[in-house]
Amino acid sequence: MNLFGFARKKHPPASAQTAKDRLQILLAHERSSTGTAEADYLPMLQREIVAVIRKHVPIGDNDVEVRMERGNQMSSLEINIELPGAAGTKAG
Amino acid sequence: MTTEPKNNPPLGRVIVITSGKGGVGKTTSSAAISAGLAKQGFKTVVIDFDVGLRNLDMTMGCERRVVFDFINVIQGDAKLKQALIKDKRLDTLSILPTSQTRDKDALTKEGVEKVLNELKAEFDYIVCDSPAGIEHGAQMAMHYADEAVVVTNPEVSSVRDSDRVLGLLSSQTKRAETVGAEPIKAQVLITRYDQDRVDRGEMMTVDDVLEILAVPLLGVVPESKAILKASNVGTPVTLDGPSAAAQAYDDAVSRLTGTQVEMRIVGERRPGLFQRLFGRAS
């Protein structure tokens, strides 16, 4: 080994660990979503939520926002629905 | 699996060299492994599945001897014997080049199966060099495999793509579709491994990669200047004089044939102070 190896040990930026952590989180999700790589259901989910809410409240196509955050232990699905103001008057 | 000498009936084992990501060393590994198998006396053929981007011929150094190709054979325009190129260095080694002009759709399941069956009757090992990606060409290369070598660099995109490929191997192949068939024996070959960078925490370790992919390790090929040098001259690295990379490939080949070889990570270490001061032969 390098003669002066001891001198430059022990201050690792350890980006390798970051790489490993990122991969483990990502792959856990990719493997669970059967078949194709991504959660393909999100756009469909978004359309269906819009349709359900529209039965009761007039909202536009872009008033529902679906966002997913993947974590190691837990993932969260955030659904933001923008409703028309109190007057409930929206052109359509 | 037992390793039989040359004269017994051929083993007829199909090995796909695949990875998903491009540029990780599939063709280099296909050349090195097929030459390594042939060197051990196994009748070996290596097939280029990268239709349209033929490169195995150059890596093997037979680019000027290509007359007919894999696609010609599939389409019945040439006999298999006419398309096979016998290696000039090893009489146990043959190359089946691919077409430079057709596209991947020329590969059909039926056509590939027919050619593979013909090769199985004559060869111990049929090494399939897969194209990058996970589309038609790559799926054809892996479809009839008995065994898979997934070439992976210790780097995030390569490991991710390897994981996808491992998923395909266990779901989209003949063995996966056949009820009761033994699954494809998949193993990972880590290439471009740099021990110095691993020591400095800049590169994932072998254990990191194995923990993520959860398949057995076939070998670890260090980053090595010998690889480019060998491809420059059209020689598989396992036939191009001693080097750390050739040693690693030879070990991997022995493991493929069922021989137990201790896993050693041969490094191309930079010379230390004393070696630099006093010089070193070779």
Order of helices and strands of chain B: EHEHHHEEHEHEHHEHHEHHH
Placed side by side, the strands forming the largest sheet of chain A appear as 1-2
The stretches of 5 or more residues of chain B where confidence is low (pLDDT under 50) are 1-5
Work out the largest interface and the residue count of each chain: A-B, 20 and 21 residues
Tell me the number of helical segments of chain A per DSSP (H or I, 4 or more residues long): 2
Strand composition percent of chain B: 15-25%
Name the average pLDDT of chain A: 74
Oligomer: heterodimer
Largest pleated sheet of chain A? 2 strands, antiparallel
Figure out the total of helices of chain B: 13
User: What percent strand of chain A?
Assistant: 5-15%
Unreliable spans of chain A are none
Average per-residue pLDDT of chain B, rounded, comes to 92
Characterize the overall form of chain A.
elongated
Overall structural class of chain B, as computed from helix and strand content, comes to alpha/beta
Number of strands of chain A: 2
Helical proportion of chain B, percent range:
25-40%
User: How far apart lie the N and C ends of chain B?
Assistant: 38 Å
| Shape estimate of chain B | globular
